[in-house]
Design a protein that fits this description.
The protein is an alpha/beta fold and 178 residues long. The protein contains seven helices and five strands; from the N terminus they run αβαβααβαβααβ. About 4% of the residues have low confidence.
């Protein structure tokens, strides 16, 4: 029986918290254009709040994104002109108007919106790419098993269609005051 000397791997270099923080401070702000996928529902508030905070922290542009996924949006795209698409367009315009007033003096470089058409995952991926978004904030509803089969798993489909970071924010229903 032959004995071989055990190969000793060199220990990984130790890193200090100070070194990591110093390196993080030297890195430039990563995000220039932050997109937020809105559904025109009360749960949009949670995603919008996160996206606004991130845009301010990064002095980034904020792009509000929405996909009209009803029958008209899927068949006729931007030519649909149906009630859903008209409502969604007005909703986005009202958000832009209000955010522009509320964020005056904040370090958000610009605020705009873009509307896509078709099924949610593919439409959102197309919008994000065409708008040059480099961070996407989406809503995570916390569905479980059967609900994911019924409602679809949008985040997974979008995540597989994009190469940018995606922040999933749990979109809670706002509680009535009192």
């Amino acid at each position: 029986m032959a004995l071989r000397r055990e190969k000793v791997e060199p220990a990984a270099p130790l890193v200090s918290a100070d070194d990591v923080l110093a390196a993080a401070r030297r890195l430039p702000k990563q995000f220039r254009r932050i997109g937020v996928a809105l559904e025109a529902r009360p749960t949009d508030g949670a995603m919008l709040a996160e996206a606004v905070d991130l845009a301010a922290a990064h002095h980034a542009e904020l792009v509000l994104l929405h996909v009209v996924e009803g029958v008209g949006g899927q068949w006729y795209g931007p030519q649909t002109g149906d009630l859903e698409s008209r409502h969604d367009e007005e909703y986005m315009k009202a958000l832009i108007e209000r955010l522009t007033k509320d964020l005056e003096g904040q370090p958000v470089s610009a605020i705009r919106y873009a509307i896509g058409y078709g099924d949610m995952p593919n439409g959102l991926v197309r919008l994000v790419r065409s708008e040059g978004v480099d961070l996407l904030v989406v809503g995570g509803h916390g569905h479980k098993r059967l609900a994911d089969l019924i409602h679809g798993d949008t985040i997974q489909s979008v995540r597989h269609g994009l190469t940018i970071p995606i922040l999933a924010v749990r979109g809670e229903q706002p509680k009535p005051p009192g």
